[in-house]
Amino acid sequence: MGKSKVLIIGGTGYLGRRLVKASLAQGHETFILHRHEIGVDIDKVEMLISFKMQGAHLVPGSFKDYNSLVEAVKLVDVVICAISGVHIRSHQILLQLKLVEAIKEAGNVKRFLPSEFGMDPAKFMDTAMEPGKVTLDEKMVVRKAIEAAGIPFTYVSANCFAGYFLGGLCQFGKILPSRDVVIIHGDGNKKAIYNNENDVATYAIKTIDDPRTLNKTIYISPPKNILSQREVVQTWEKLIGKELQKITLSKEDFLASTKVLDYAQQVGLSHYYDVCYEGCLTSFEIGDEEEASKLYPEVKYTNVEEYLKRYV
Q1: φ/ψ (deg, to 5) at 183
Q2: Which Pfam families does the protein's record reference (predicted)?
Q3: Beta-ladder partners of 228
Q4: Which residues are catalytic?
Q5: Helix locations, 90-189, DSSP H
């Protein structure tokens, strides 16, 4: 059986562009939905042209034009959506309901990977902090629509993107590591899971033709990337040969700090609270058949120390 044809929606975005590269690298005929209303965003245009020169097909279409979605979906076997669910950038999770209808009408899709790629909403919908819970709630709305429509799916839970978490040593609002002072959340010992975004894309593409991942949630939880904040900081200190000054931020002070922020920032801070203070990502067990690095041992994932070396 040949490799599936793949349509990627959001292919110029933060994760989307990595999914395009991974799809091409793994030998899939790759289609990218692009909007007519891209305007004069020259960076996105140049990215699309670059992908075209690497062999990708550019397909005009938009969530504003339902028929264009249906026609784009009819070209492929697999649809991957990577539109943003991050409030501080753009938040479009529920737009996927139109895509679900288009996939249902087209009737040819063998696998759909919706825009998930974070914490598993099914695990935390009852315990997540407000207002960040809205993101999980909306992802569950999309999941229910997918399953009600009988669309074959894989949900990819990628936990924490390394660029957002490791880059700032797990400090909210920072994406470059300090060489002097670091804020430690609580005791700093709650473990989380950090993944290189390129690895997330590689694993996601691996799942699309794999019968083991059909109608399942797959977790990207490589064992070397399950660390506490203190362990992340210690890894950085080892790399730079210097111990940082550590300032502890209590749970109470963290929560108080959220009250002066705007809504989008509060949503983001809520996710940090669940990860850094509650340790939500490591609060449940997963089997080897659900974990990407066990399913695909041939993938050499980037561990935390290797990732942090880029900042030295």
Answers
A1: -85, 125
A2: NmrA (PF05368)
A3: 191
A4: 139
A5: 96-106, 121-124, 133-148, 162-165
